[in-house]
Amino acid sequence: MNDTNDTSQPIVIPKSRFSVVWLLPLIAVIIGVGMVYQQWQNKGVEIVIVFDNAKGLEAKKTKVKFRDVDIGTLQEINFSDDGFSIEAIIEIDKKMQSYLLSDSQFWVVRPRIGSAGITGFGTLLSGAYINIAPGKSESLSQRFVGLENPPISTPTSQGIKLKLISGGGKSLTVGNPVTYRGFEVGAVESVNFDIESRQVTYSIFIQAPYDGLITTNTYFWNSSGLSFAATTDGITIDLASIESLLSGGVRFDVPDDLMLGERITQSRDFKLYSSRASIKEDRVYEYIEYVILVDDTVGGLQAGAPVEYRGIRIGRVSKPYLGFYETNQIDSDETRIPVIIHLEPARLASNNEYDLPWFNEQFNKWIKSGLAARLETANYLTGTMKVSLDLGNEIQPEVEYFGKYTVIPSAQTGFASIVSKTDRLLSKLESLPLNELVQSTNTAISSANTAILSANDTVIATQSVLLSVEDTLKEASLTLQGMQPDSPVYLRLERNLAELERTMQMMQPFLQEIRQKPNSLIFSGSSPADIQPQGKGQQ
Amino acid sequence: MLKLLSLLLLTYLLLGCISNKTPRESFYYLLDAAPMKEHNSTAGASKELTKTYIKLSTVRVPDYLQQSNLVLKLDNHQIKIANYHFWAQDLSESIQRVLMRELNAASPGVIYTQQCVKCAELIVSIDHFYPTQSGDVVLSGTYTKVSVDKSQQQVRFLLNSRLEKGGYDEAVVVMRDLVSELALEMGTLKSSY
After folding, report:
1. Integer Cα distance of A241 and A223 in angstroms
2. Calpha distance B164→A132 (Å, rounded)
3. Rounded CA gap, A437 and A434, in Å?
4. Does the beta-carbon distance from A533 to B166 stay under 8 Å?
5. Number of residue pairs across A and B with CB atoms under 8 Å?
6. Picking from A160-174, A283-297, A482-496, B42-56, which range would have the lowest pLDDT averaged per residue?
7. Which of A241, A520, B151, B164 is 20 to 30 A from A193 in CA distance terms?
8. Are B64 and A512 in contact (CB under 8 A)?
9. A196 touches chain B (CB under 8 A)
10. Count of alpha carbons within 13 angstroms of residue B2, beta-carbon side
11. How far apart are CA B60 and CA B58, in angstroms?
12. Chain B interface, Cβ < 8 Å to A
C-alpha cells in the first residue's frame, strides 16, 4: 500500500462552467432569428391604389391578379385624407415588383353589364379581384390611381389613339365599338365634353394591325341607328351591327371619291360626322366663290344650304347675306341682297380629277350662256331654302363682278315669280274654249246618267236572281237535312241498298249458272238436293 | 215428207219442255223462332234509371254469311251454300236480337239496348257460324267490351255442339242454342264494365 492509493481523500472533479441545458434557448433564439429573417425576406412590396369606392373589395381576401395569376393581396382599406376616395393598401409579391411601373393600370374586376355584354361573370362566385396592366415607363411607383372601368387599351397595347370631335348624332359611351366595314377594330375609350368649345370629344383606340387603315382621308361617322337608301335595286338598309343599333358605335372609311391618303401614325383629331351621308354633304371641299344678288327675301336660307344644278348638288351657301358693312364697301347703292355661295367642283369629280381654274372658266361661259340662280324651297315643312342653278336666263355678253365675287345672275323668285306665273296661267285660261267644254261636259253627264239608270236596272235584276239563288240554297239545305244519317229517308235508302245488295248476292249463283249453261233459262234442270249435315247420333 | 219431219221435231221439243220434273221445295228458317218476352224500356222507367245501360252494336258477320242461303262446311275446308234452305231474316239482325233478349233475360241489373248515350258498348264479331257435314255446329269469334272511359277488353270465344239426327232443321235449333250459350258467357262478365 502507498499514500497515493489512499481512498480517504475525496476526488475533486472540476465542474464545467457551461451547462448543456443552455443549448436549448440558444437554438430557439437561432430559429426565431431565422424565422424573422425569412419573414423579412418574403415580405412583399406594399403599394397604395386609390379608388372611388371599395365596392367588392375585402381586406385580406381580395387578390391582385396579372393574367389570372395571384401576385398580391389586399391588406387594408382606408379612407383618403379628404374622405372622397378610398386607399387600398396592397402587398405585391416581391418578384412582381418590376411590374409596378408608374403608368401601370389597376382596376377592379367585378360583374358588369354593358354594351359589350356581361363581363366578370366568374367573379360572382370567386369574388371581385384587382387586375393589373403593367405599363412601359422606366420608373417604379408605389402609389397608383385605380380605374373605375376596365381600360379599352393598356399602355402596352399596340394600336393608335385618336380623338373624334362630334358634329352631332347620337352620343356614344365608353366601350362602344369602332368598326371598319362591319369588322370591329377598336372601341371608344373615353368621352369628354368641352365646355368652352361646346363640343363632345371621344377618344378612341384602334388596335393593331387595323391602325394601318387610318389615313389622312379617313372619315369617321356615327353608326347609331339605321339608314335607308332607295336605289334601282330596291331599298338598301345600312346597319353596322345590332350592337351599334342599340348602343351606338363609330364607323370609318375613305370616301369613294378620294384617294387613300397617307397613313396616320401619330394621334390626331378627326371630325365625327353624324352619318355617312353627311360626310359627302358636309365635308370641306375646294371651292370657287360666287355671289347672287337677290331681289326678293332670303328668309329660310341658311349657311350650309345646298346649291344644286338641276338637282345635282354642286356647292353650298357660304353666307346667306353679306354683311351690311362689306356690301356698302363694295357698292353703297346696291339694294339687292348679296348671297355668297361656294361652288365645289370636287362634288362632281373624283380623286382630284378636277381643276379649279378650268371649272371657273367653264362657269363663266355658262353664265354668259344664261346660267341663273334661283332661291327655292328645300323643305316645305321647315321652310328652309336652297339655291338652284339652271340655264334659261337671258344671254349676257360679259360676266359681272360684285367686289371680288363673280356674279351669277338671279332669276325671278318668290312673289315676282308667282305674279308672272299667275299671269301666264290666267292668259291660258282665257284662251280656253270654255263654252264648248261646258256643252260637251253636259252631254257626257247626260250619257253617264243613262248608263247609271241602265246599271240600276241590271242591279235590280241581279238582286232578284240572288234572292232566287238564296231560296234555292235554303231548299237544298232542307233537302240535305232530310238526308242526314238519322233521317227516315237516309235509313230507308240504306235498307233498300242493303236489300239490293242481298238480291245481287242471291243473283250470283243464277248468273253463274246462266254463264255456264245459257240454255238453262229454257231447259232449267233442277239443282241437286242440298247436302245435309249428318247427325252423330245416327253413326 | 218435210212437213212430217218438222212436226216430229216440234213435238220432240215440246215434250222436252213438259218433261221437266217438279221443282224441289225451298225451306226458310228463323233463328229466333221461339220468341221470349220483349224487354220493355218504358215500363218501370223510374226504377231503370238506376240500372246500367249497355249498347249492343250490330253483330258483324263474315261475307259468306251475308246471304240468305244457309251454308254447310264440308270436311275439306269447303263451304257449301244450300240451294233450298234459306234464312228467313238477315242473320246479323237475328243474332243481335237473340243476344239482346238472352242478355236482358240473364242480367236483371243491366239493360242491353241498341242505342244509348255515354254508356258501355258490346261489339260482337262472328268468324264462324255453320253446321259441318260431319255433324258439328261451330260458333266462334270475338266480343269486345268498350267501357265508358273508352278502355277496351276483347274476349275470343269458340262454342261447339253436335247434331244428333242431322239435317238443317236440327242444325238451326243447335245454332240458336249456341247463340244463347254465347249470351250467357258474355253476361257473366257484366261486372267488368
Report:
1. 9
2. 112
3. 5
4. yes
5. 83
6. B42-56
7. A241
8. no
9. no
10. 0
11. 6
12. 16-17, 20-21, 23-24, 66-69, 72, 74, 80-85, 90, 131-137, 162-168, 170-171
Q: Are A144 and A104 in contact (CB under 8 A)?
A: yes
- Bridge partners of A322, per DSSP, are none
- Distance from C-alpha of A534 to C-alpha of A238, rounded to nearest angstrom: 98
Q: What is residue B46's predicted lDDT score, i.e. its pLDDT?
A: 45
Cell numbers of A363, please?
362657269
Query: Contact B79/B73 with Cβ under 8 angstroms?
Result: yes
Percent helix, strand and coil across chain B, each to the nearest 5: 35, 35, 35
Q: If pLDDT is split at 50, 70 and 90, which confidence band does A264 have?
A: confident
Cβ of B162 within 8 Å of Cβ of A536? The answer is yes
- Each residue's pLDDT tens digit, B123-157: 999 999 999 999 999 999 999 999 888 888 899 99
User: What three-state secondary structure class fits A398?
Assistant: coil
With cell 355661295, the residue in question is A341
How much is the CA Rg of chain B, to the nearest whole Å? 24
B81 to chain A: closest CA residue: A530
Q: Phi and psi of A505, rounded to 5°?
A: -65, -40
Contact A535 B131 (CB under 8 A): no
HSE toward the beta carbon, residue B138, CA cutoff 13 A: 14
CA B33 to chain centre: 12
Output the CA–CA distances (angstroms, integers) from residue B5 to A369, B1, B13, B16, B19, in the order listed: 134, 6, 12, 17, 21
The position carrying cell 251475308 is B66
**Residue of A507, A534, A538 to mutate for B, most B C-beta atoms under 10 A:** A534
pLDDT reported for residue B45: 45
Phi/psi for A445 (5° steps) reads -65, -40
Query: DSSP alpha helices (H): ranges in A132-252?
Result: 242-247
CB contact under 8 A, B166 and A532: yes
CB spacing of B164 vs A529 below 8 angstroms? no
Residue A81 burial (C-beta neighbours within 10 Å; 0-12, 13-18, 19+)? exposed
Q: How many CB atoms lie within 10 A of CB A150?
A: 20
For the beta sheet containing A45-51, the strands, ordered from the edge strand earlier in sequence to the opposite edge, are A105-109, A129-133, A63-66, A69-79, A86-92, A45-51, A143-145
Residues belonging to chain B: 193
C-alpha cell at B136: 258439328
Residue A155 C-alpha cell reads as: 399602355
Question: Is A500 near chain B, with CB under 8 Å?
Answer: no
Pair A287, A344: CB distance under 8 Å: yes
Residue A159 CB partners (closer than 8 Å, separation 6+): A153, A186, A205, A206, A207, A208, A210, A211
pLDDT band at B35 (very low <50, low <70, confident <90, very high): low
CA–CA separation, A319 vs B144, rounded Å?
Answer: 101
CB A134 within 8 A of CB A101: yes
CA–CA distance, A362 with A369 (Å, rounded to integer): 11
- As given in the structure block, the three cell numbers for residue A270 are 378627326
Q: Which three cell numbers stand for residue A272?
A: 365625327
Exposed/middle/buried for residue A329 (C-beta within 10 Å: 0-12, 13-18, 19+): exposed
- pTM recorded for the entire structure: 0.42
pLDDT digits (tens, 9 = 90+) for B36-88: 555 544 444 444 556 788 999 989 999 899 888 999 999 888 999 998 899 99
- Secondary structure of A428-477 in HEC code, one letter for each residue: HHHCCCHHHHHHHHHHHHHHHHHHHHHHHHHHHHHHHHHHHHHHHHHHHH
Q: Is the distance from CB of A118 to CB of A112 less than 8 angstroms?
A: yes
* Distance of alpha carbon A374 from alpha carbon A389, whole angstroms: 6
What distance in Å separates the CA atoms of residue A308 and residue A387, rounded to the nearest whole number? 6
Give the nearest partner residue to A533 out of B20, B68, B167, using CB atoms. Answer: B167
- Of A52-56, A78-82, B41-45, B54-58, give the range with the top mean pLDDT: B54-58
Distance of residue A455 Cα from the nearest chain B Cα, in angstroms = 58
